[in-house]
User: Fold this.
Amino acid sequence: MHTLYTIIDDIADNGKIDVMQLDALLKNNDREADGYLFFKAQKAADRIYKNKIYIRGLIEFTNHCKNDCYYCGIRRNNFCAQRYRLSKDEIISCTDEGYRLGFRTFVLQGGEDVFYDDDKICDIISEIKKNHSDCAVTLSIGEKSYASYKMYFDAGADRYLLRHETADREHYGKLHPAELSFENRIRCLYDLKEIGYQVGCGFMTGSPYQTTDTIYKDIRFICELKPHMLGIGPFIPHHDTPFADKSAGTAVITLRLIAIMRLLRPCMLIPATTALSTIDEEGAEKGILAGANVVMPNLSPKDVRGKYTLYDNKIHSGSEAAEHLCLLKKKFENIGYEIEISRGDYKDK
Ligand code: SAH
Assistant:
């Protein structure tokens, strides 16, 4: 009979977890055991990243999307979404403002918007790199061909975020329409790695039809892909999607999975996500104290922030706003952490 504590020690010492151990940790009702798990994960992050938190300026540059993911508020079939696109000049202004505030990584995220063809994307990347050569550019613009990914990389993109969403094919089919394939999503991630990007995958906690078995597959997939970054945040329903009536994921399961992944792959860059802060006011601090080491404040122009509504009540003010970095700084100081002004690259130990 394993206690939760011996399970946690075993994961930390051996960098491995089995499905029974995962199940025990996910179903646990013992807050002290959670405390022990989070503490161990926090220490594992500290060994590599010390007490430094990396910041990324998130620019949500378009909410037009050709896809129809059942969970997402900017899916093409949500006719209530107020659509917008930022011009190249608007994006460049965001990065200039972000640079002034101390950001050295810019994340360009958007729906899969055919308006921005490869030439436009490359032009934006090279302009940012020309203006701010000490900055990293991260893309998060969905599934593309190997050739497109290579073009962006050659134009100067450093990193790419593409959550795999779930590593279980059947589960993938319940979250997405048939025109989207699990195989292509996974193909993209391996292509991005091969090209040389720092790559991030990830999944939502509590997404409809998720089970311990699908989460175990996520963990096995992550250990096989070996991404540099990992985004884990709770699923939150959006009222104009097919999943409007589904229940949201919880903060505690999100924190446990952040902690478990930190113990399994200590070097990864793991954000305390906006979704986590949306369901829990102290999400950013709790995320850091469970092993996260990145935050991504919103650097989009203020008038579009309320339109990038992936889910209901998505926060974009207070310490979630890039211009209020001082609030975040205070939050982290209170728990013994500092924001680092740097690109914040992946550390290979
Ligand atoms: N089009 C890009 C960016 C998608 S938005 C891409 O395909 O990668 C970034 C992430 O937000 C998604 O990968 C998804 O995991 C998350 N997301 C979307 N809808 C959500 C919801 N309802 N609740 C929580 N997270 C959501």
